Here is the input.
Amino acid sequence: MLPAITPAIRLMPPARRALAALAALALAAAMVLSAPLSALALDTAKCTARPNGNTGSEVYGGSETRLTWEGQADADEPVAGLSITFPAGTTFSTDDARLTMLSGEKLMDRTTIDAQLASDGETFIATFDEPLPAGAYVRAEIYEVTFPTSGGEMPIKGTYTLEDGTTMPVEDITPIMVEGVSPVDQLSKALEESDWVKAWNSNKFLRLFFNPSIVVSSFPIVFQGFLMAVAIVAVAFPIAIPIGLCLSLMRMARLRLLRGIASLYVNVVRGTPLFLQIYIAFFGLPLAGIQIPSFPLGVVVLSMNSAAYLCEIFRAGIQSIPAGQTEAARSLGMNGAQTMIFVIIPQTVRRVIPTMTSEFILLYKDTSMLAAVGVMEVVMYAKTIVASTGSITPYIVAACFYLVITLPLAKVVGRLEHRLAGGRPRRKHRPGAAKPLQGTDSAGVTAYVTDALTSQPVIKNDTADAGR
Here is the structure.
């Protein structure tokens, strides 16, 4: 067309000739742009790695995973080969790799692609025996992929080869997010691959209840729950002590109303399971429109439950103090409140410390019940790992975290009870040294209280002791 237009342009005046030349160039450009071009694109539809941790959807370095890549070729583009390049330091295997062509409605029809598989460093290479039909949807699955332990974004690159041998880049491959591997995970992996652990795990009972590699890998996870349990009981128990002391004083008060309120509370709390109280608090309060976070609500429930038991502990301790000490304090002019604060309660606390320590142990173990309402403590973390591994070993690890607290405290309770029972060896009386206060008679208490209040030397009357 352009050669036919050229003679006509030459016959035009110069101005019109220039305009006509520009119009001819524009027409030629439009014809070139409208001409069909070869489609050269293999778009990535999916590129993911299978989670390889004990929990969650994370992909960890240093552990085997599976890479799945899917791509769609253009309608007039027959693909003859595919290559995928991993980051430096990544290893993989071509033994179990699979190439599949998906077609049909919702890509449900699958056809295995026959190909020659090879590796070149960090590059996976697949050469198809026959070029795929134009517009094919391809899936590549590469197994035993191990990313570097450093973690971070792992860029994946790819190329594909056309039927005529042209090589083009694969577009839009999303990097894989890989979590770094801690020394604990590396140790767990090394244990899992060691010969003695394999021999140990060959026994089904040992593998289920004490798998060494799972012990190591679950330890830091369960430790987070241990910190949560300790935090709960460390806040709940100090709150329960003054509440329990107030309830014990109310139960011994002269006013019938105070005694009735304290008795009702103690009997209801001690007469119902703690598990039921937790359910009422965590599911009943939200229905009533009261929203409280899990941690403070768990602290409140455990402290209120422990206060009912501490009430009886304090009441028994107060009633174990001889009445003569109260009479002695009154004879010195102390009123009822002063007698209770300065004479009765200090001796009561000394007597009930072993029982209070036992209550602390029970309260710490009761934190495990909060797992039923989703509080992430020791049992909840262990339960999560058990669900993903199918091994009971994390529960054994959780039991060890409980024993770390309970066994030393049980030993302390035993020693305190031994000392309070008079098991401590007596010290030899040195000449000139004051004799220790003995007995609980009124004369001895009078001397003890007077000495404590005046901070002056007093002459203790041992006549009563001599006559006992």
